[in-house]
Amino acid sequence: MDTPLLAIGRAPLALEPLVQAVTARSRAGSDGAVVSFLGLARNHNAGRRVEYLEYEAYEPLALRAFARIADETRARWPSAALALHHRIGRVDVGDASVAIAASSPHRADAYAACRYAIERVKQIAPIWKREYFEGGDMWIEGATADPDDERARTAAERIACA
Amino acid sequence: MRVTVRLFARLREIAGAGELTRDMPPGATIGTVWRQLAAEFPALAPYERSISSAVNLDYARMDQALADGDEIAFLPPVSGG
User: Fold this and answer.
1) Of B13, B73, B79, which has the smallest distance from its Cβ to A61's Cβ?
2) Nearest-by-CA chain B residue for A88
3) What is this model's ipTM?
4) Separation between Cα atoms, residue A130 and residue B43, nearest integer Å
5) What is the pLDDT of residues A39-67, one digit of tens each?
6) According to the CATH classification, is domain A6-160 in 3.90.1170.40?
7) Any idea which fold B2-75 has?
């Protein structure tokens, strides 16, 4: 079965299917680089000993946000292809919560597209993590999601190209 | 008109439900729905400045007018990744 480029689900994440998905394109053979990223549940955060995380998403809107991120990536790096999967439900320490792969004829664009995608996920994807730590638990609240905030988008692009 | 309201993460917990239906007067906006919910669940009120909202799976501004059957979502600051 073909791996979708964009997905949200409860199953553990692996990079290899995403790498396959971004390189098995009609122009197969033209890519010179794949850059991949795995975001892992870390055992500490802000001085707390983290035991596990729980992710929740507004799934249909999150998939739309992923499609927007893919569109933005294509507009900025036309030769790059992007795959982006996010896990929901319980994610144990050491397991991946997000997996990204970006391919391109040249490594600079693949690196930039991959970095841009994770920065944008953190800005605009309607996904939330709840941290279960030693002694309690709490929702983590990061950015107010506003896909039309051009200043935030530009900041993500600047980080991607640094 | 009747609308569906979706709430997520901490907002869902404050309201005790991830999905509510509410009858709204003609001319109601997303902001009207939010203010009614914040009156019903006062712990929501502090989120007014940090939430995002969406209507029928499109991000939308608080002054957007609503129609019968709309699905409105209120999203606390996101923390994916």
Assistant:
1) B73
2) B80
3) 0.97
4) 18
5) 999 999 999 999 999 999 999 999 999 99
6) yes
7) Ubiquitin-like (UB roll) (3.10.20)
